[in-house]
């Protein structure tokens, strides 16, 4: 004969095994395909940055420095975002809307990389290193745009209301209050 504890434990107690995984893909924030694309973004940004850093002299250094800034930013922040999204660390950061952050960041970097690559291609010294850096800059740009496009295709625009956003937990004032005797009253 089963006791009440056994019956209730099997139906009311959550038996979730503790996840000791450090890398969680797919997750609610990142699927496998977009994870691979983010890794490609990091690698292409790294190659573009390294090739740009090896350039020893420049006639007009402004485009080179802008490309350097964008490629370095893309490398470091995409790597950070990737690490946060594939590990449980994102749960410890006080950000409630990872999809909005991910989509916004990826779209902005795609546009910045496009501008930086165009400007650097138009105003570089045309050495093989500069041309290689520009080529990898354009490849990284394509990867960032593909990532943004896949995000839109699979999840829609994250900033819109009605999309699968987390609930707003802002406290709201009560419109109706209860009387002491338990009946409703309208203010």
Largest sheet: 2 strands, antiparallel
Q: In percent terms, what proportion of residues is strand?
A: under 5%
User: Measured on Cα atoms, how large is the radius of gyration?
Assistant: 25 Å
The number of E-state strands comes to 2
Structural class: mainly alpha
Question: Spatial order of the strands in the main sheet?
Answer: 1-2
The outline comes out as elongated
- Indicate the percent of residues in helices: 55-70%
Q: Report low-confidence residues grouped into runs of 5 or more.
A: 163-170
Amino- and carboxy-terminal Cα gap: 55 Å
User: Number of folding domains?
Assistant: 1
Main location: membrane
Region (Disordered): 162-187
Membrane topology: Multi-pass membrane protein
Transmembrane segments: 64-89, 101-121, 133-152
Summarize the structure.
The chain is mainly alpha-helical.
Structure, explained:
The chain has 187 residues and is mainly alpha-helical. The protein has one domain. 59% of the residues lie in helices and 3% in strands. It has helices at residues 4-12, 32-54, 61-86, 98-122, 128-155; strands spanning 176-178, 184-186. Strands 1-2 form a two-stranded antiparallel sheet. Strand 1 (176-178) and strand 2 (184-186) form a beta hairpin. The radius of gyration is 25 Å and the shape is elongated. The model is unreliable at 163-170 (pLDDT under 50).
Keywords:
187 residues, mainly alpha, two-stranded antiparallel sheet, elongated, MARVEL-CKLF_proteins, transmembrane helix, transmembrane
């Amino acid at each position: 004969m089963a006791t009440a504890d056994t019956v209730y434990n099997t139906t009311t107690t959550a038996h979730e095994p503790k996840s000791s995984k450090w890398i969680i893909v797919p997750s609610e924030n990142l699927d496998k395909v977009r994870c691979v694309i983010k890794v490609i973004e990091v690698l292409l940004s790294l190659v573009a940055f390294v090739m740009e850093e090896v350039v020893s002299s420049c006639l007009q250094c402004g485009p080179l420095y802008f490309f350097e800034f964008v490629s370095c930013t893309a490398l470091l922040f995409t790597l950070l975002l990737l690490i946060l999204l594939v590990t449980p660390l994102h749960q410890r950061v006080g950000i409630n809307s990872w999809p909005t952050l991910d989509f916004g960041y990826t779209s902005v970097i795609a546009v910045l990389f496009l501008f930086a690559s165009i400007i650097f291609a138009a105003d570089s010294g045309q050495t093989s290193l500069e041309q290689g850096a520009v080529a990898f800059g354009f490849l990284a740009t394509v990867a960032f745009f593909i990532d943004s496009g896949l995000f839109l295709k699979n999840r829609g625009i994250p900033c819109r209301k009605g999309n699968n956003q987390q609930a707003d937990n802002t406290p709201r004032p009560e419109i109706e209050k209860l009387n002491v005797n338990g009946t409703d009253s309208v203010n």
